[in-house]
Amino acid sequence: MxxxxxxxxxxxxxxxxxIKDAVGEMxxxxxxxxxxxxxxWQKQLTVRAFVVSFILGILFTFxxxxxxxxxxxxxxxxxxxxxxGFFFVKTWTKFLNKSGLLKQPFxxxxxxxxxxxxVATSGIAFSGGFGSYLFGMSEVIxxxxxxDNASENIKNPSLGWLIGFLFVVSFLGLFSVVPLRKIMxxxxxxxxxxxxxxxxxxxSFHTPQGAKLAKRQVRTLGKFFTFSFLWxxxxxxxxxxxxxxxxxxxxxxxxxxxHKFYFDFSATYVGVGMIxxxxxxxxxxxxxxxxxGLMWPLIELRKGDWYPADLGPxxxxxxxxxxxxxxxxxxxxxxxxxxFKVLGHxxxxxxxxxxxxxxQNQIPVSRNSSPDLASLNFDDQRRTQLFLKDQIPMWxxxxxxxxxxxxSIFTLxxxxxxxxxxxxxxxYLLAPTLAFCNAYGCGLTxxxxxxxxxxxxxxxxxxxxxxxxxxxxxxxxxxxxxMNIVSTASxxxxxxxxxYMTLASPRSMFVSQMIGTGMGCVISPCVFWLFYNAFNNxxxxxxxxxxxxxxxxRNMAILGVEGFAAFPKHCLALCYAFFxxxxxxxxxxxxxxxxxxxxxxxxxxxxxxxxxxxYFAIDMCVGxxxxxxxxxxxxxxxxxxxxxxxxxxxxGDGIWTLPSSxxxxxxxxxxxxxxxxxRSANVKVDQFLSS
Length: 691
Hints:
The protein has helices spanning 6-23, 29-32, 41-44, 47-70, 78-99, 108-127, 139-145, 159-169, 172-177, 181-187, 193-205, 208-236, 254-258, 267-275, 278-300, 319-355, 378-389, 394-415, 421-445, 450-465, 471-502, 506-534, 548-562, 571-592, 594-597, 603-612, 615-633, 635-665, 679-690. The protein is globular and about 85 Å long. The chain contains 29 helices and no strands. The protein is mainly alpha-helical.
């Protein structure tokens, strides 16, 4: 579930509920901070804030990269970023205060700057496409696809062009929505649930009660971080060969293990399961049972009839083709349904907003226009006054967009010669409208459709370029351009909402997002390069880092260019069926209402195990079970500390990848291989060794 649709959306809703349960909804929060002076926007941007952001940005980039390259499921890390940012700077200022060197106290505005910068930095690990469209261009993935004209559609990763590509495409979305910040936040009063939940979290940290709770949460996070890191170290000693170690433990039996059903002792995915809503985890398990428990075993019985019996397990003309293409069909069905649903909400909401404005009260777009402050409560009055105080000049937005667009149109064809300048120009003409739609829809529903817009670009530009002119690579590159624009646009608007509610200046939010994006454009490629060079069989199914979405995105590009000729027998009919099933399930979920929809699985989540397997779904369901039992025993404590425990498990295991990568690069191998054999296989091994 690439950081598209379901990932951020469902997780942020869960974050918001837990935060509100833990610290309470304070309707007059600004009364508590009334006596505290709000620093000017320049003083919100401190050196210590960006030092902490840089350190946390590296940590979270490792986490997001690992998740991206294993399953593609990335939970919301806003709580972890806000909590760790508060802890680091609070510790820093406490030390300086004792030594008498503290010049500026730690404020919630500075905390917001850190959180914004960290999320912007680690966000590039997703929108940069290292587990999807960018790595999908590589020879490793192309060999698994078996498409025509493969040589014209291959571009292997290189640190230089990766960094250059990200720098020319990642900033455009920021400038595209800057002029709309006042309309979205103040005039339309869009909720932006993720941004609102993060603001409540940061505000709570800086109240006396919230600070005490935050300290306890940080201690809890630290304990489980240490446990998770040491558990990763312990497991490493038993992974001397392929299929060795606890991650290959056939906990449900060898037959179940062959069909990808086992608990692999991953602290990361247990933690992810604790953060993700129960419905996501159950949907993953249902999808795993339908695919690996029923469909693939039945299709494998047709070997020699539906597909040639002599094909390897990785061939897309065999069983692998059913796994990949049926999964893609469900993802596209779910994505297109939600695309039109959110688009409908967007235009309906816009129509109502415009209709409700009388001629004397038009939507204020100019710099000097302001709403009727007397009609607002104290919190909104103070927030609106400060939000309108530091405006970002329109000329900066227009000049920035046009300058970066011109640079990008000139530069990108030198990186991807298959992508022509007129392809890029058309994307940039449409981009502001699509960025607005995504940002507005995200404000209403918290659903970011960045990957859906990217997939549309794959099909349109890929088909336009044509199969004989590198259409697959052109489509993948266009996907990257589009995804970066619409993703960063909605992210920035979420940050503006967080800043509005914490009295952080729009200027400091924009600068923080720019700096975070710039750091991400360097950090993410370097982290990916470390993974790429350190681990054997990188990107190969069954390996430690299979990068499943890379193959999925490449095959979408192939579909856009070549059509359905490469499908195995009956695969197209099954794709149509599951495409329709995804739409029907989503329709039923919307018809029955929110309460009953909690018991109907989500098609996007169901589709992920179709290709990967069910092992990670079992891990995540274990995480859900832990949280469920904890909630039954002590609900307030589970609500307050559950996210901290989950974050500790994710962060500890995620940061272990850094020393494990370094060990692999310098040639240090684990000393033991722990492997599990059936009784008959074990007898044969014993006989061989004794002979």
